[in-house]
Amino acid sequence: MTAKSGSNRVDYRESHVPRYGWQDERPRWHVKKLWRGVCSFLRTNDCHKILDLGCGNGAFAARLAAEGFSVTGVDPDEQGVAIAREHAKGEFFVASCYDDPLQLGLTGFDAVTCLEVVEHLYWPDAAIQFARKALKDSGWLIVSTPYHGYLKNLCISLLDRWDQHCNPLRRGGISSFSRARR
Protein backbone atom coordinates (compact mmCIF):
# COMPACT_ATOMS: atom_id res chain seq x y z
CA MET A 1 0.00 0.00 0.00
CA THR A 2 1.24 3.46 -0.75
CA ALA A 3 -0.04 6.78 0.54
CA LYS A 4 -1.20 9.40 -1.94
CA SER A 5 0.58 12.71 -1.39
CA GLY A 6 -1.54 15.27 0.42
CA SER A 7 -4.05 12.64 1.51
CA ASN A 8 -4.55 10.32 4.41
CA ARG A 9 -6.07 7.70 2.10
CA VAL A 10 -4.07 4.66 1.08
CA ASP A 11 -3.86 3.77 -2.58
CA TYR A 12 -5.03 0.17 -2.67
CA ARG A 13 -3.01 -2.17 -4.88
CA GLU A 14 -4.05 -5.68 -5.86
CA SER A 15 -0.49 -6.93 -5.34
CA HIS A 16 -0.89 -6.35 -1.60
CA VAL A 17 -3.95 -8.53 -1.21
CA PRO A 18 -3.35 -11.41 1.17
CA ARG A 19 -4.09 -14.76 -0.40
CA TYR A 20 -6.64 -16.73 1.59
CA GLY A 21 -5.61 -20.08 0.22
CA TRP A 22 -8.81 -20.95 -1.63
CA GLN A 23 -8.40 -24.50 -2.91
CA ASP A 24 -11.93 -25.31 -4.02
CA GLU A 25 -15.56 -24.22 -3.98
CA ARG A 26 -16.46 -25.82 -0.64
CA PRO A 27 -18.33 -23.49 1.72
CA ARG A 28 -16.69 -22.29 4.91
CA TRP A 29 -18.50 -22.57 8.24
CA HIS A 30 -20.20 -19.18 7.99
CA VAL A 31 -21.88 -20.06 4.68
CA LYS A 32 -23.40 -23.17 6.23
CA LYS A 33 -24.49 -21.26 9.31
CA LEU A 34 -25.87 -18.08 7.74
CA TRP A 35 -27.29 -18.85 4.31
CA ARG A 36 -30.79 -20.01 5.33
CA GLY A 37 -31.40 -16.94 7.51
CA VAL A 38 -30.03 -14.54 4.92
CA CYS A 39 -32.06 -16.15 2.11
CA SER A 40 -35.20 -15.92 4.23
CA PHE A 41 -34.53 -12.25 4.98
CA LEU A 42 -33.89 -11.48 1.30
CA ARG A 43 -37.13 -13.19 0.22
CA THR A 44 -39.17 -11.50 2.96
CA ASN A 45 -37.88 -8.10 1.84
CA ASP A 46 -38.43 -8.76 -1.88
CA CYS A 47 -34.73 -8.63 -2.78
CA HIS A 48 -33.69 -10.14 -6.11
CA LYS A 49 -30.41 -8.52 -7.20
CA ILE A 50 -27.68 -9.27 -4.63
CA LEU A 51 -24.04 -8.15 -4.36
CA ASP A 52 -21.82 -10.42 -2.25
CA LEU A 53 -19.02 -8.10 -1.08
CA GLY A 54 -16.01 -10.23 -0.11
CA CYS A 55 -17.37 -13.29 -1.92
CA GLY A 56 -14.17 -15.33 -1.58
CA ASN A 57 -14.59 -18.58 -3.49
CA GLY A 58 -18.24 -17.82 -4.32
CA ALA A 59 -19.74 -20.49 -2.05
CA PHE A 60 -22.34 -18.14 -0.55
CA ALA A 61 -23.09 -16.59 -3.95
CA ALA A 62 -23.60 -20.09 -5.37
CA ARG A 63 -26.16 -20.86 -2.65
CA LEU A 64 -27.96 -17.59 -3.34
CA ALA A 65 -28.02 -18.29 -7.10
CA ALA A 66 -29.36 -21.80 -6.46
CA GLU A 67 -32.21 -20.17 -4.53
CA GLY A 68 -33.06 -18.02 -7.58
CA PHE A 69 -31.34 -14.74 -6.72
CA SER A 70 -29.37 -12.75 -9.30
CA VAL A 71 -25.89 -12.61 -7.75
CA THR A 72 -22.76 -10.57 -8.33
CA GLY A 73 -19.61 -11.20 -6.28
CA VAL A 74 -16.64 -8.97 -5.51
CA ASP A 75 -13.39 -10.06 -3.87
CA PRO A 76 -9.77 -8.86 -4.11
CA ASP A 77 -8.40 -12.43 -4.10
CA GLU A 78 -7.89 -13.51 -7.72
CA GLN A 79 -7.74 -17.20 -6.82
CA GLY A 80 -11.06 -17.03 -4.96
CA VAL A 81 -12.75 -15.19 -7.82
CA ALA A 82 -11.40 -17.73 -10.34
CA ILE A 83 -12.99 -20.55 -8.31
CA ALA A 84 -16.24 -18.59 -8.03
CA ARG A 85 -16.36 -18.02 -11.80
CA GLU A 86 -15.83 -21.73 -12.42
CA HIS A 87 -18.36 -23.09 -9.91
CA ALA A 88 -21.01 -20.45 -9.21
CA LYS A 89 -23.70 -18.86 -11.33
CA GLY A 90 -23.35 -15.09 -11.51
CA GLU A 91 -20.83 -12.37 -12.29
CA PHE A 92 -17.62 -12.11 -10.27
CA PHE A 93 -15.14 -9.24 -10.14
CA VAL A 94 -11.63 -8.95 -8.76
CA ALA A 95 -12.09 -5.74 -6.79
CA SER A 96 -12.50 -4.63 -3.20
CA CYS A 97 -14.49 -2.31 -0.99
CA TYR A 98 -11.72 0.26 -1.49
CA ASP A 99 -12.71 0.54 -5.16
CA ASP A 100 -15.59 2.65 -6.44
CA PRO A 101 -18.65 0.54 -7.36
CA LEU A 102 -19.87 3.30 -9.68
CA GLN A 103 -16.73 2.98 -11.81
CA LEU A 104 -17.17 -0.80 -11.84
CA GLY A 105 -20.80 -0.50 -12.93
CA LEU A 106 -21.98 -2.15 -9.73
CA THR A 107 -25.15 -0.26 -8.84
CA GLY A 108 -28.86 -0.81 -8.30
CA PHE A 109 -28.64 -3.78 -5.94
CA ASP A 110 -31.55 -4.73 -3.69
CA ALA A 111 -29.11 -6.01 -1.06
CA VAL A 112 -25.40 -6.24 -0.32
CA THR A 113 -24.12 -9.10 1.81
CA CYS A 114 -20.79 -8.67 3.58
CA LEU A 115 -20.33 -11.84 5.62
CA GLU A 116 -17.28 -12.42 7.82
CA VAL A 117 -15.36 -9.67 6.00
CA VAL A 118 -15.29 -6.46 8.06
CA GLU A 119 -12.96 -7.91 10.70
CA HIS A 120 -10.28 -8.24 8.00
CA LEU A 121 -10.48 -4.65 6.75
CA TYR A 122 -8.09 -1.88 7.63
CA TRP A 123 -10.89 0.62 7.01
CA PRO A 124 -14.18 -1.11 7.88
CA ASP A 125 -16.18 1.96 6.92
CA ALA A 126 -15.03 1.45 3.31
CA ALA A 127 -17.35 -1.57 3.07
CA ILE A 128 -20.28 0.54 4.26
CA GLN A 129 -19.45 3.31 1.79
CA PHE A 130 -19.09 0.79 -1.06
CA ALA A 131 -22.45 -0.78 -0.18
CA ARG A 132 -24.17 2.59 0.04
CA LYS A 133 -23.09 3.44 -3.51
CA ALA A 134 -24.00 -0.01 -4.85
CA LEU A 135 -27.45 -0.22 -3.26
CA LYS A 136 -30.79 1.11 -4.44
CA ASP A 137 -32.17 3.80 -2.15
CA SER A 138 -34.34 1.21 -0.41
CA GLY A 139 -31.61 -1.47 -0.38
CA TRP A 140 -30.38 -3.58 2.52
CA LEU A 141 -26.85 -4.12 3.86
CA ILE A 142 -26.37 -7.43 5.67
CA VAL A 143 -23.14 -7.66 7.67
CA SER A 144 -21.87 -10.43 9.92
CA THR A 145 -18.68 -10.84 11.89
CA PRO A 146 -17.45 -13.72 14.07
CA TYR A 147 -18.46 -14.06 17.68
CA HIS A 148 -15.39 -14.89 19.72
CA GLY A 149 -17.10 -16.14 22.84
CA TYR A 150 -17.97 -15.49 26.42
CA LEU A 151 -14.46 -15.35 27.90
CA LYS A 152 -13.24 -12.62 25.53
CA ASN A 153 -16.40 -10.58 26.15
CA LEU A 154 -16.00 -11.02 29.90
CA CYS A 155 -12.41 -9.72 29.75
CA ILE A 156 -13.47 -6.69 27.70
CA SER A 157 -16.22 -5.98 30.24
CA LEU A 158 -13.91 -6.33 33.24
CA LEU A 159 -11.39 -3.99 31.63
CA ASP A 160 -14.13 -1.53 30.62
CA ARG A 161 -12.94 -1.54 26.98
CA TRP A 162 -16.25 -1.90 25.08
CA ASP A 163 -16.19 1.65 23.70
CA GLN A 164 -12.77 1.06 22.14
CA HIS A 165 -13.44 -2.54 21.05
CA CYS A 166 -16.83 -2.03 19.37
CA ASN A 167 -16.24 1.00 17.21
CA PRO A 168 -16.77 -0.26 13.64
CA LEU A 169 -15.65 3.04 12.12
CA ARG A 170 -12.26 3.01 13.86
CA ARG A 171 -9.49 3.09 11.30
CA GLY A 172 -7.02 0.26 11.54
CA GLY A 173 -9.38 -2.68 11.45
CA ILE A 174 -11.84 -4.05 13.93
CA SER A 175 -9.86 -7.09 14.97
CA SER A 176 -6.50 -7.15 16.60
CA PHE A 177 -5.28 -9.89 14.25
CA SER A 178 -5.62 -7.79 11.08
CA ARG A 179 -2.49 -6.00 9.93
CA ALA A 180 -1.35 -4.07 6.91
CA ARG A 181 1.05 -5.82 4.58
CA ARG A 182 3.80 -4.21 2.56
Descriptive overview:
It is a single chain. This protein has a single domain (2-165), classed as 3-Layer(aba) Sandwich (Rossmann fold). Helix content is 34%, strand content 20%. It is built from seven helices and seven strands; from the N terminus they run E-E-H-E-H-E-H-E-H-E-H-E-H-H. A five-stranded parallel sheet has the order 5-4-3-6-7, sandwiched between helices. Strand 1 (2-3) and strand 2 (10-11) form a beta hairpin. The longest helix has 16 residues, at 29-44. Mean pLDDT is 79; it is low at 1-15 and 175-182.
What's the SSE blueprint?
Elements: E1 2-3, E2 10-11, H1 29-44, E3 49-53, H2 59-66, E4 70-75, H3 78-87, E5 91-94, H4 101-104, E6 109-115, H5 125-134, E7 135-144, H6 150-158, H7 162-165
Keyphrases for this structure?
182 residues; alpha/beta; Rossmann fold; two-stranded antiparallel sheet; 7 strands; globular; disordered C terminus
CATH class: Alpha Beta
Number of strands: 7
> How is the biggest beta sheet arranged?
5 strands, parallel
Order of helices and strands: EEHEHEHEHEHEHH
Q: Work out the strand percent.
A: 15-25%
Under CATH, the topology can be stated as Rossmann fold
Based on CA atoms alone, the radius of gyration comes out at 17 Å
* Class of secondary structure makeup: alpha/beta
Can you give me a brief rundown of this structure?
With 182 residues, the chain is an alpha/beta fold. It has helices spanning 29-44, 59-66, 78-87, 101-104, 125-134, 150-158, 162-165, and strands at residues 2-3, 10-11, 49-53, 70-75, 91-94, 109-115, 135-144.
